[in-house]
Please model this.
Amino acid sequence: MAKIIQWFPGHMKKATRDMEEKRALCDGVICVLDARAPVATFNPRLIEIFKGRPVLYVLNKSDLADNKAEKFAAMIEKQGKPCVLLSAVNGSFRRALEKRLQLLTKEKRERAESKGITRRFRYVVAGIPNTGKSTIVNLLGGAKRAKTGDVAGVTRDVRWIKCADFDLLDTPGTMPPFCETQYLARHLAYIGSLNDDILDIADVAAQLLGELQEICPAALAERYGIETGKSAENMRENMQGNTQEGENAFTSAALLEAVCKRRGLILRGGEYDYDRAARAVIDDFRKGRLGKICLEYPERYENVRF
Model:
């Protein structure tokens, strides 16, 4: 696979500086991760910026993830960090999230009350692009206060949002300057945290199919006619020991060809329309049409400190 392009545009650098300047005003941090790829969407730099502030980890889009996301949440909690699974587009999660925020700053509230001080508490909502930060702001604000979208980079500026009895600092998605492995970088491409326009979309879709053949072969067989059975077993054998580092020995392009055949995506001259097939596969994954999927395995990341 071609090397994933690192995406760190100028507005992210500015947002990082703005967050550093406003750090002293924040009482706590809502660190938003995508439940389908919790490790790939974790940016240690954001935690470093707000070092010393209590952090609530939110595994958003949990409605699109399988039970491995629950195991990641348990892992984070075991490290002594509060964590909650939610779907920010579902208003029923609002009250539970508000309660977790109150617990996050419980000690600060009690100290303020003991001194007779009444004040509004402030939380920064931080994370990488397209994890649903602005949707969480809208969930807590009770209205469409922040601009949202299905593509990365909708929010461009740092700004305060007033909620019922607290304030939120809405921030642009901020990528780490580099990704640790190409395996994790690809996960950012799959979920839409990288701008599709800078990627070889057919290459990305082929690699996604390769990983999904290991995770949910039955879903691929049903939707695209991709074989399970022996071909899948051979593929998994080829992937053993290599998947985490992103070196897939199987020719994933064959999987994309199967999608072209099933959908009849053939160009003049008999060539496959890889681009249309790729966009269909990626759209199916992002919208949950292949079922609930978490791309990462908790047991492989026991040494990751959130």
Q: What stands out?
A: The two ends are 29 Å apart (CA to CA). DSSP finds twelve helices and six strands in the chain. The longest strand covers residues 28-34. The first helix runs from residue 10 to 22.
